[in-house]
Structure formats: structure tokens, C-alpha cells
Amino acid sequence: MKKSAAFILSISFFILIKPSLLLSAEKQIVGVFGASGRTGIHIIEELKERDVVIRAFSRREKEDSDTVNWTVADVTSEESLFEALKDVDVIISAIGPVGGDNSENVDYQGTINIVAAAKKNDVKQIIYMSSIGAGGAENISTVMLNLLANKTMKWKALAEDQIRNSGIDFTIVRPGGLIGDPFTQGIQFSQGDNVLGWIPREDVAAVLVESIFKDGAKNKTFEVINDESLPLDAWRNEFDSLEINQYGVIATGELPIRYWLTPLLLLIAIIYLIKRRRARS
Q1: Per-residue confidence at 22, pLDDT binned at 50, 70, 90?
Q2: Which residues on adjacent β-strands are paired with residue 170?
Q3: Which of 40, 127, 132, 261 is most solvent-facing, going by the fewest CB within 10 Å?
Q4: Do residues 182 and 200 make contact, with C-beta atoms less than 8 angstroms apart?
Q5: Is 26 exposed, middle or buried (0-12, 13-18, 19+ CB in 10 A)?
Q6: Least confident of 169-173, 209-213, 270-274
Q7: Where are the alpha helices (DSSP H) in the chain?
Q8: Are 200 and 41 spatial neighbours (Cβ–Cβ below 8 Å)?
Q9: pLDDT (tens digit, 9 = 90+) per residue, 59-87?
């Protein structure tokens, strides 16, 4: 009788308790766009340190490893994304133009396609790597990028806007210039696109991945640069200090007035002085 009671209790435990244990043990599936890029490879390495399932997307077939499931997907083809994102919980996007691509097709239209597929698959969060300058900054590096790279900041800004208005929880990270040695300086968080600086790709990858696990990162847009005055890991507690709806303005990609007005005024002044000198002689 005692054995029967113990057996019944064991079965009851398995039926009532075990399913909840199984559910709690389920891992999030994190899909990574741009996974084979220069920042993407560091995102994958960061994710390997976390208790998640990694689904990496590539235009070409790649062989799976013990820790990474490679899936063929092309952000410029909306149809290729629907099946690729099945069961994905979180998207990290580090896409960017390569080869003959341009920013409009990849950053902007690619993001539109990702958002559409994410909605159909009930993705819970989109984490997007943008860039300082997408929030309307008018520093010289942003101006040169827009002039030489098909108004890339304009298309990144419009891509950000697609994500912010998607109805899906998001985190938009705008790194400064990608350079330097990783994990040797602190990381400064800022908002409104009012800073300029540098940061290693590995540091950016760490911020992107950490954003999965911080509720304070949700629905925030912010810039990240290295700051030697800050403790190395202090940034991990800074997500809660960020504000919602602080992202600057949508970058136009046009040359700011001061960049052409000042040379124009200088040219007019030179012409005036030359004419005046000739008139005197």
C-alpha cells in the first residue's frame, strides 16, 4: 500500500511539477542578422557565453556547429525571412552593405523586411546596431559618410524609425567609430546623438547581447563610445537610466547649411576684395 502511494505521488509530481520545470528550462532563440560580418562574429561569440539557442543568418549555406545553427536568409528578400524567423524570440541585426549593395537596399529595405517577418513570427524584441549620426548629428565624420556612402545615415535613421514604430519591443544601439582594443576602457551611454568617439566591435557586441537580458534596455535608443574615465563594467547598470523617445531627429543625409554656407560666404568675400583691389588700381 505504501509503495502504491509513493508511486502515485511520483506520478503526480511528474504530471504537475515536471512540465513547469521543462518550460522553465526552455532557452530563448536568438536570431542574428549580419552574423558573418566583422561585428556579427563578435555577437556570436558573446551569445555563446549565454544560455540561449543561436540561429545565425547568412545569404549562403554554412555548416552548423555544436553551438550555432546557420540558416539561409537574405534581408533583401522578404519571402526568405518568414521561415527563417520561425520560433525566434529575439533578433539582433548588425546588417550593412557589402560588395555591390547599398544602404537603401540593405539598411532600410532590409529592416522593413525584417520587421514584417518578425511581426508574422511574434518576435519579442529587435536589437538593431545603427550608428552615431543616425540621430541627426552634423559632425564631419557623419557628413563625409553621407557624401561618400549614399547617404547611409539617412537610411539607418529611417530603418530605426521602422523598428521604433513596429509595435515590437526594441533596443537601438548607435556605436561611434569602430576601432581600438576591446574591454580596455569603460563605455559611455548617451542619447540625442550629441557625442562623438570610438568603440571596439567587441564592446558593441557586448552591449547588443546584454540588451537581451536588461528590461531597462527595452524601447530605448542610445549611443555608445569608449570613455577611459569610467569603470570597465559600469555600463551594465546604465540601461535603466536611459529615457524612452530620446533619439534626436531623423537624419536627412543632406549637407548641413553651415558646411556650404561658410565656404560660400568666404568665396563671396574673396571675390569682393579682388574686385575692390582692381577698382583701386
Answers
A1: very low
A2: 126
A3: 261
A4: yes
A5: exposed
A6: 270-274
A7: 2-16, 18-25, 40-48, 78-84, 103, 110-120, 140-148, 152-164, 201-210, 257-280
A8: no
A9: 989 999 999 999 999 999 989 999 999 99
CB 224 within 8 A of CB 209: no
Amino acid at 268: I
DSSP-derived 3-state class of residue 39: coil
Using an 8 Å Cβ cutoff, are 169 and 213 in contact?
A: no
Residue type, 82: F
Cell of 273: 576684395
The C-alpha atoms of residue 37 and residue 24 are separated, in whole angstroms, by 33
pLDDT in tens, 87-122: 999 999 999 988 767 889 999 999 999 999 999 999
206-259, pLDDT tens digit by residue? Answer: 999 999 999 999 999 999 999 999 999 999 999 999 999 999 887 665 545 444
CB count within 10 Å of CB 123 equals 22
**Mean pLDDT (the chain, rounded):** 85
The neighbour count for residue 132, using CB atoms within 10 Å, is 25
Residues 6+ apart with CB under 8 A from 148: none
Length of the chain: 281
- In order of 156, 188, 255, the CA distances from 225 in angstroms are 18, 5, 24
112: Cβ contacts below 8 Å, ≥ 6 apart: 159, 162
pTM above 0.90, yes or no: no
Angle at 56 between CA 83 and CA 132, to 5 degrees: 110
Grid cell at residue 48:
555563446
